[in-house]
């Protein structure tokens, strides 16, 4: 059974998002059993990095949902449908990362401090303009899309990982690629009366701020989890640095895509990578659900 969101091509906006794009809600369940403590090939650095990422997702994705929904009024029918599908996908992602985080805690990792830091940072966003929250969401969605592409395109990232965890990250990555333009198109809708320079200035500034905070916080979060595994000091920092920049080197490999965000006229769908979705789609056909 297939359950994509169907769009009327005649309602397309003048943006690079493919006219025939469909967003599909895949209602999957993962990690309800057991996983190894060091699920990433028995190695601590990849395990800690992804555990730290996952610890931020439940609150982070709730923030993304609210930031996008705040600007849905007046959206054309296609964008409105994309937003509804985006929300459903993100709700499912939250549920599955809650389950994954629970397994990490059962293995003895204390991730509550990470969750608390995310809560404190998000509390600071309550009183700022909602368009700024959308610009932050847009930048973070670009991060998830860049990493999703890398995880699917380069099998080295999860080649020796626990199969159940690998499938969760593949499923999440498929949907991040699929909805990578939703926050951006919502931003274009919300700022339709702005000058191109004003729109560019805010999105570029927010990407710089988000990048600084993202890497500072995920670096510290990962070192904290490594310390819980008995790995500290220079060994922890050098091992994490090698993991991120050498092999498999996700940060090094996403840098060109990160830089492209600052190109005037940039759009997430300048690079159409739906072929990666098709490559993995068959693995999740049994879990498709209506998106409307």
UniProtKB/TrEMBL annotation:
Pfam families: Metal_hydrol
Molecular-function GO terms, alphabetical: hydrolase activity
Keywords for this protein: Hydrolase
Xref: InterPro entries: UCP07580
Top-level taxon in the UniProt lineage: Bacteria
PANTHER family per record: METAL-DEPENDENT HYDROLASE
Stated name of the protein: Metal-dependent hydrolase
Native source species: Qipengyuania soli
């Amino acid at each position: 059974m297939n359950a994509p969101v169907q769009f009327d091509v005649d309602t397309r906006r003048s943006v690079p998002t493919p006219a025939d794009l469909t967003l599909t809600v895949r209602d999957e369940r993962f990690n309800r059993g057991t996983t190894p403590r060091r699920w990433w090939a028995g190695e601590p650095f990849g395990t800690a990095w992804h555990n730290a990422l996952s610890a931020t997702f439940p609150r982070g994705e709730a923030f993304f949902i609210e930031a996008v929904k705040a600007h849905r009024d007046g959206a054309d029918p296609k964008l409105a449908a994309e937003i509804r599908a985006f929300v459903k996908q993100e709700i499912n992602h939250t549920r599955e990362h809650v389950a994954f985080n629970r397994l990490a805690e059962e293995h003895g990792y204390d991730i509550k401090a990470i969750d608390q830091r995310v809560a404190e940072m998000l509390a600071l966003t309550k009183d700022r303009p909602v368009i700024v929250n959308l610009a932050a969401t847009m930048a973070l969605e670009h991060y998830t899309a860049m990493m999703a592409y890398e995880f699917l395109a380069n099998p080295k990232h999860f080649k020796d990982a626990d199969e159940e965890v690998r499938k969760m990250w593949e499923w999440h990555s498929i949907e991040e690629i699929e909805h990578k333009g939703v926050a951006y198109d919502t931003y274009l809708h919300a700022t339709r009366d702005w000058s191109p320079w004003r729109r560019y200035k805010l999105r570029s500034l927010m990407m710089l701020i988000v990048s600084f905070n993202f890497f500072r916080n995920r670096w510290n979060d990962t070192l904290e989890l490594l310390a819980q595994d008995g790995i500290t000091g220079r060994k922890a920092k050098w091992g994490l640095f090698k993991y991120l920049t050498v092999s498999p080197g996700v940060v090094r490999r996403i840098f060109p895509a990160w830089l492209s965000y600052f190109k005037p006229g940039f759009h997430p769908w300048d690079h159409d990578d739906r072929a990666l979705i098709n490559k993995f789609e068959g693995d999740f056909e049994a879990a498709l659900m209506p998106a409307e």
